[in-house]
Design a protein that fits this description.
This protein has 2 domains: 116 residues, Rossmann fold; 168 residues, Rossmann fold (3-Layer(aba) Sandwich). Helix 6 crosses helix 7. Helices cover 35% and strands 18% of the residues. The strands form 2 sheets. Strands 8-7-6-9-10-11 form a 6-stranded parallel sheet, with helices on both faces. A 5-stranded parallel sheet has the order 3-2-1-4-5, with helices on one face. One of its GO terms (biological process) is lipopolysaccharide core region biosynthetic process. This is Glycosyl transferase.
Length: 307
Amino acid sequence: MAPRLMKILFITSNRLGDAVISTGVLDALQKRYPAAVFTVVCGPVAAGLFEPDPRCERVITLEKRRHDRHWLDLWSACVRTRWFMVVDLRGSLLSLTLRTRRRLIVKGGRRDGRKVEQLRDALGRHKTPMPRVWTSSQHDKTAEDLLAGGPWLALGPTANWDGKIWPPERFVALAEGLRRQGMRPVLFYGPGDAEKERARPVLEALPEALDLGGDRSLGEVAALLARCALFVGNDSGLMHLAAAAGTPTLGLFGPSRMSEYAPSGTEAFAIAAPGPEGNASLEDLSVEAVLGVAKAILAGNAGSFRT
């Protein structure tokens, strides 16, 4: 009789940034259980993050419905499977109702320390699970075709709310300041009209910039980011994706908590606007300050800003 296939259910965030942060946990599980296959549950915006993963046999998108009926839909999709393990990073009741040999349930509430470290402690691991990305050969080929030459300066001038956005004219000034070092600007932003409108002032002021924003798959975006020499952007899912792709990444923080949401990776850096954490304004973060850190990253001596 053939051995039963080892199936692991991995429930992660609806939001892109938190989903990217959770990829380190998924990667650690895949290394620990090399024979397992995975079903990932996430929000629609994050689904493309997991689709290129060859160990992921299914991605279930959890789209919110009235009266929490989306959880009933998910239960119906999962209840017939006998799982080897259920890993629930959302602390839902659903994970208690499924047949499984093991459960790892992460409860919310803690806000001290970086998110990756919170996950490490919640799962009882000794090593921090660092985020990663998956790309296909087609993603890599597209990135190679679109970003020949360089070096490329990736800019992420958008975010999910205006308070987290560094003024557009400062992104323009930053690009102009780094042009003297041969950097060529390329803009990234998410799908939808709102994202395009937030990026428009930078695009219009930098007509030579390559526009790679919009409705691209996350695997393709990750492959494109991996070919850039530096990413500078607001606290956003795109910032976390850049860091996970291994791109030298400088995250800009104002009212959001850098101590919790700083990018994670081997080449991840962050700078915060002056003022109390959680109550600072990106209006107070100067071009000179960001440009200085960006140049230090490119020169390999920005250790004090490493996260």
